[in-house]
Structures are given as C-alpha cells and as structure tokens.
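Re: the request from the purification team.
They wanted to know what the chain is likely to look like in 3D before they choose a buffer screen. I agreed to run a prediction and write the result into the notebook, where they can find it.
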Amino acid sequence: MNQFDLTDDQREIQELARRFTADRITPFAAEWDEKHIFPRDTIRAAAELGFGAIYVSEASGGIALGRLEAALIMEAMAYGCPSTSAFISIHNMASWMIDTYGGAEVKAKYLPDLVGMARIASYCLTEPGSGSDAAALKTRAVRDGGSYVVTGTKQFISGAGENEVYAVMVRTGEDGPKGISCLVIEKDMPGVSFGAQERKLGWHSQPTAQLILDGVRVPAENLLGAEGEGFKIAMSGLDGGRLNIGACSLGGAQRCLDEAVTYTKDRKQFGKAIAEFQNTQFTLADMATDLEAARALLYMAAAKVSDGAPDKTRFAAMAKRLATDTGSAVADRALQLHGGYGYLMDYPIERFWRDLRVHSILEGTNQVMRMIVGRDLLK
C-alpha cells in the first residue's frame, strides 16, 4: 500500500498546514467573508512557514517542494477558507514563474520580498475581451530602448490594487500565442491603476479588480524568458495553478462533508437523528466516495507535474475538472442535508458553497479542461 500513501515528510507538511489553519484561518474566516477583510497579516504568517514560496528553488529562498506537497498545503488551508488558500496559490504561481523564467536581475529584484510575502504577486492573463481564448489578448508592449511601454487592461485579477507585483502577459509580436511575452510590472510604476473592486458571489477575503496599464514603462530586464515565450510560460504556470485550485476544492468539500456528518448526527426529525435515515447515509457515502476519487486523481496529477511527465498537462486538466466539479457538488449536497439552516450565514456551508463555485471557472473553465483532455487524446 505504500505507493498509494503519503510519505512521513508529506504527512508532516500536511499536519503543519492543518495546525496553521486551525489556529490562524478557521476561527476568523467567517468574519473575513462577511466584512470583506483581506487578511494580509495571516497571509504573511503563512509565508513564515514557507507557504509563500512552496516550489520556489532553495537558491532563491524558497522551500522547493513538489506539486503534491503544494496541493496538500492548499487543501489543508482551504478547509478553513478556500478564498484565502486560493489567493496564496496565485502568489506561489507568479513567484514560481519569476524564479523559473526570470534572469538574475529580475530574480534578485523581486524574489527576496516575494518569498516572505513582504510583497505579494498576481498572475495577469485574462482581459475583458479574452477569457477562455487567452491567446487573443490585446495588451500591447512596445520595445523602446531599454524598456517596454505597456498599454492595456487585465480583468478579474486577484490581488489587484493590494498586491505590489504583477506577472503580466502582453503582446510583443504577431497575433496568436507566438506573439505573447511576459513582463513583471510593479504597482507603483507610473501609468499603473486599478478598476473598482468587483462585487463577487464569493471569495470575499481577497480583492479582485482590473489592472489598467496606460503607457507603463517597464525595464526590459523584467521580461521573463524570451520574447514570444509568454504564452508557454503562462500555460506552464497554469498546470500547477489548476492542481492548487483543485486542491482548494477538495479542502473546502472535506470541510462541508465533516460539517454534514456532525449536523446530521445532532439534528433530529421524526423522533430520531437524520443520520439514522438510510437516505442520509447514502448521500454521505456518495459524497465521501466522490471526494476520495477526485483526491486520488489530483495527487496522481501532482506527481506527474512534479516529474515533468509527458502527459502532465492532460492529467492536470482532468484533475482540476473533476476536483472542482466534485467540490461544488459535495458542498451543494452538504447544504441540502442542513436544510434551511444550510442557507444561513450562521453555518459555514453557504460560504463554502459560494467560494467553491468559481473554481469551475478560473484557471481555465472546466469546459476548456475537457477540450485540453480531448485534444490530447486525439492527437
């Protein structure tokens, strides 16, 4: 059975993340959601454990773990608050891109602060007119001497207005994916501004807004990789991002399942606990089975991404699709088992129901995940 189990080191990492969540996230998450509080101090406390640079190299100050270990951390933190866990995941994705594709100058400039989350990073691909068709982005970067001059707008950016560093996909060449590059842009560069904070169904503990770039002059050394490699860089970041958002769905759904088990044992109808009804037991059994199946696929996909397996992108897409759809379904059934009480903010289920719903949309919609898998099978 050992090949299907976590190692001792992985269990220690998981337990560390669970203790942090129990102490610093779970008791406060409902207030963050209700009052739209961005818990910067808690996020920086997570970075003190290395969770701000999970798969950044040790040479750059990170803890250089694999994608399975990252998934375990994200899953554990999402048990308390999927929104906060997902926010930390996005920072990790952007920091990893800088570490992996940045030159010595850009790494020295940004990574020391990003590792400890003294500065926080955002990932910027989506635009008002290009969502699933990400390669159609129009934000333009024109080389001018030792700088790029960047103009355009990015949409649905987690951390926009709060975060200090933005890994931005821009068009430096022809239409399509081969004309896209990636630049690191700072919040306080002249010409950078932000739209109004979006009014969202969930994810209330993190800010989301447009990133507006109006003739922003960015040093050429802030280019990640070479010109024309930006789309490849963006997609490589998404392999890990999709695993993490799937893991966030697993953590949130596990919380919903645990809450449903506790509630159905306590709640009495027709003279006995509703957990004693066979229909309730069947529902809980299906929730637990679906969750374990999604978890097994996601852990397998994480191992493939860490190992650089040829089919890593397909498995990351499959795992993201299954884990996020399953997470939403488990949360929905948990809410149903709570009856009218599940609809109230006095219970955590409605918050998880709202937070998990967006996971089927971001990091590539689940329809796009099916396209990735289908095309890979037929190539």
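For the purification team: The beta strands are 121-124, 140-144, 147-158, 165-171, 180-186, 192-194, 208-219, 223-224, 268-269, 272-273.
Please add any questions underneath this entry.
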